[in-house]
Known about the structure:
Chains A, B: Residues 19-87 form the CggR N-terminal DNA binding domain. Two copies of one chain form a homodimer. The first copy, chain A, is of the alpha/beta class. The first copy, chain A, has 15 helices and 13 strands. In chain A, the strands form three sheets. A seven-stranded parallel β-sheet of chain A has the order 3-13-12-7-4-5-6. A four-stranded antiparallel β-sheet of chain A has the order 8-9-10-11. In chain A, strand 5 (170-173), helix 8 (186-197) and strand 6 form a beta-alpha-beta unit. At the A-B interface, helix 1, helix 2, helix 5 and helix 6 of A face helix 1, helix 2, strand 1, helix 5 and helix 6 of B. Chain A binds a DNA duplex through residues 35-39, 47-50, 52-53, 66-71, 164.
Amino acid sequence: MREILDIQKQLLPDLVDTMKKRYTILHHIMVSGLVGRRTLAMSVGATERVLRAEVDFLKEQGLIEVEASGMRISVSGRELLERLEPLVKDLFGLTELEERIRSHFGLKQVIIVPGDSDVSPHTKKELGRAGASVLRKLVGEDETIAVTGGSTMAEVAYHLTPATPMKGCWFVPARGGLGESVELQANTIASTMAKKAGGRYRLLHVPDHLGEEAYQSLMQDSHIAEIIAFIRGARIVVHGIGEAMVMARRRKVDPETTESLRRDGALAEAFGYYFDRDGNILHKMPTIGLRIEDIHRMDHVIGIAGGKSKGESIASVLKHGHEDVLVTDEAAAWEVVNRLLS
Amino acid sequence: MREILDIQKQLLPDLVDTMKKRYTILHHIMVSGLVGRRTLAMSVGATERVLRAEVDFLKEQGLIEVEASGMRISVSGRELLERLEPLVKDLFGLTELEERIRSHFGLKQVIIVPGDSDVSPHTKKELGRAGASVLRKLVGEDETIAVTGGSTMAEVAYHLTPATPMKGCWFVPARGGLGESVELQANTIASTMAKKAGGRYRLLHVPDHLGEEAYQSLMQDSHIAEIIAFIRGARIVVHGIGEAMVMARRRKVDPETTESLRRDGALAEAFGYYFDRDGNILHKMPTIGLRIEDIHRMDHVIGIAGGKSKGESIASVLKHGHEDVLVTDEAAAWEVVNRLLS
DNA sequence: AGCACCGGGACAAAAAACGTCCAACTAAGC
DNA sequence: GCTTAGTTGGACGTTTTTTGTCCCGGTGCT
């Protein structure tokens, strides 16, 4: 069922919206018994005229009966509502979830794909597709887009497709190299994205975690300083979100720091920063690439992560309050709202 | 899957059309490899401008890539087409089937609901719903609508809903009473329809099968003559289609006539007439109610019947060539086209 | 270099959607 | 029986969207 809706959404993006609207109206009419146009318009939050068009439609379909004294649901209408129920539950679950998360954290947009990335690889692909799609809609011309590494971001890169405004864009890594496999490096992903989207890219050939002295000396190098300035001038950043401890291990953070993170209750990691449960930044190492102040200045901060296990981490990062767009999956989204309630 | 599409069609009637259109375009682009807008417009049969809007949409969705040299399908697009295939097969199967039957028999409209009425009661309900819907669209104001009996027609009556133009309509039985149960009598159905649709009705209290003398004497009666004239003035008739032998038995036709029908290869029955394989009328008993010449004069002749077993009968009646609209189910429709091929 | 085809910008005409008001009608309360 | 608050459906000007039509600067093939 999800599969079908998913396919249809690609050919008819406002299908769910229209269905949602009409279902809401029909449902309202049913619970109201006998109701008038204006009253109904109020309660579903539509202007009288557009509601009238919808009512005409429902009448045409024989789903409602309308008399001079008001309108009521017909037998067919009641039947349809019943059959619609399971569909709507799926349909609305996600859109409602999106809206709930969006408004609570004050985001611009939330996109939830069905499933759980932890369990199903297909969901992870969907996440990538959704991420690519949102990026495609947000980019302007000749923009610089900073990206991080990770398997989710790799999926996003894979699903990018050429779009005219992207032709002049630069893709750059948000940070230096990590101890991960090549395919998941920010550098690799930036270049993949550029190739897929038909844009250009620049790389940052430095390790991400450095001591203070090494950091200072590297920043002296004019080439490196130049590319870093370029990166920091990006107006769009697309990043993954990870679990703090998992990321610390993967990054080969030294034992003392790891222990310190654990003590402070580190929960999430995003673009090199660690966050606790309340969204506070815990660990601030001298960083090559984007700094948190750069993030705050961005036009579009797009976070992409999914899987039930990442739910808490995502919530922490959102709490920090710099995100604009979140792309996640159903399992993670439920975790996020569950944390809101507790 | 059918279930979902079916529900959606009630809330978004042009969903299938839009999906069909976009699928066709996308598919064309795929098989063409690299193709231009104008060339494509020709081959899918759309004006350049509307195709352009569609292309913009597909580009927006990232399903195609468009360069100065033309457009080609993207990875996502190809993927979508693959996933779309089973859906389209269902979607198009029926619409294609409809068009095939429509054009072959020169009908105005053919509506096919999925399933087999012989097997599933749900399909029969769908048939009724579709029949009611087509009737609702066809009726004008203050019209007379003649209806026959049968279980399918009962289903149509059940699914009728009030519509403003129907308020002034008269529902009348097309023929006299049969030896069937009360619920399936044309009289009963006419009255049910009138109640459901908010119209009025008149009844014909006469047995349908009579000897010549009895017929003549009945026609002398002014009340009966008046109502029969009224019935014959109808401009819309909605009728079921039955298998000849089944109907003969149900009507308690006398053994000799039954044998004669069998000898002549009677296949179908509709509004009291029997048809052979080639659509010729076999048996013409003196009839109370609509005569075949009245049928030919009608504005809208709507035949409604479904079930694999009725396929051949439907084809026979269609062949006679007086039908305007056919409402049937998938199983019957396939039987009809199979007979076209053989 | 020539040519046939390409995408996309531009713009007026046509169509659809929308906001707004009003007349005729209905049900209920008093 | 009358008032009143509520209803539908018609009408109409305005705004928005869609559509038809040209044309311009490119691209790729020959």
